[in-house]
Amino acid sequence: MDNNLFTIKDLENLSGIKAHTIRIWEQRYTFLKPSRTTTNIRYYTNEELKIILNVSLLNKYGFKVSHINKLSDAEVQEKILTLNQTEAQQERLVNELIQHMIEIKLDKFEAILDTSIMLRGVDKTINQLVFPFLEKIGFLWLTNHVNPAQEHLVTNIIRQKIIIGIEKAPAIATSDKSIILFLPEGEHHELGLLFMHFMLKSKGIKVIYMGSAVPIKDVKYLVEKLNPTYLYTHLTVVGRNFNFEKFLANLYEAVPNIPLVVSGYLASSYSKTVPPNTQLKNTLKSVTDFISTI
Length: 294
Known about the structure:
Blueprint: H1 8-15, H2 19-28, E1 35-36, E2 42-43, H3 46-60, H4 65-68, H5 73-82, H6 86-102, H7 106-120, H8 122-142, H9 148-168, E3 178-184, H10 191-202, E4 206-214, H11 216-226, E5 230-234, H12 244-254, E6 260-263, H13 265-269, E7 278-281, H14 284-293
Parallel strand pairs: 3-4, 3-5, 5-6, 6-7
Antiparallel strand pairs: 1-2
Helix pairs in contact: 3-5, 3-6, 6-7, 6-8, 7-8, 7-9, 8-9, 8-10, 9-10
């Protein structure tokens, strides 16, 4: 399937509207008209993605779908801009980031982040816009429904903003706790890990940042030298040969006495028993709760 053609599952993940509800809306209303493959599978364009994001946002904040269906595109945009709840405004901006990424409108993408940083600061921008954006589009990278060029362009913009936040955070740790941040071999998506670096440094916790594609033997070497309080990794999309269960077992064997915390898409979708001293964090709240306990 073309990178920018989406399945009904993509729409469900991006909008929060269940696939069966989307099918019902297609039968009852006129705003969604999916095309079908030769094998009769629905697929949706950029424009239909924008429509479902707009409809789900308005519906979530009090508008009936039957009413939205009668509105013109201009009227839908007007209604969205009148939503004054803080959460609605944040969700609108996240939806716009998704659309600008797909349409490769990088100036508009960056302008949203810059305006937010100016109004709210780096901390709130990362928490309220960047992380929800990454959570929503992470699975598109897994399913290859975003072109790698689009992914690289937007992640580099976000990377720059997070690094600015890290540099502005207090330079001197106020806690006696320390944490090693790393990504295993096969994982190169650093944004989630950089976000954790920012969050931890902002809380005065000492961070040892190893970066991406780190062999377990190198993690073991640093653990033996520095004796950190925790190890932390954030798994988004790893190589095809990556075995999460084996990774957890091998790391535990190498450094059994240091607690490991894992967040990211793989952590949220993993259902097997994990080794002792291992914690999986599957939501932003669980991550921030963990940080508050360090």
